[in-house]
Amino acid sequence: MKNIKEWLKEICRWENVKAFVHVLIDEGEGTDKKYKTKFTCKLYTHNNCYKITAIDRATDEGYLGCTVSARKPRAGEDWTRGNDLADGKFNRETWENIKNDIIAYELVKVALKTESIPVRALPSM
Question: Which structural domain, as residue segments, surrounds residue 24?
């Protein structure tokens, strides 16, 4: 799990993971022996919460994935919306896909600049 902890430094200001990442699970040897280590954490933005799960399995290449949930419900709803983001093998490529998905999810649409409409001169009275 050293990899995921190092990768998280890339997206945390001053590489201060403890200040920006809420670690939920950081286990060593799995009790069911299906995995060697498991790590789950949450990252928060103004509107969303991102949950990243990393599993280093003893039998294969492991798993790395991310989900996103809105931090508050939309007007008239009593649930929060969410989506699955990138996931796959526990490797650098999947991490890059997760980072890109988080950035894309946080971007807001830019309003196009409208051309100014000339104002007609008012008739004199």
Answer: 2-106
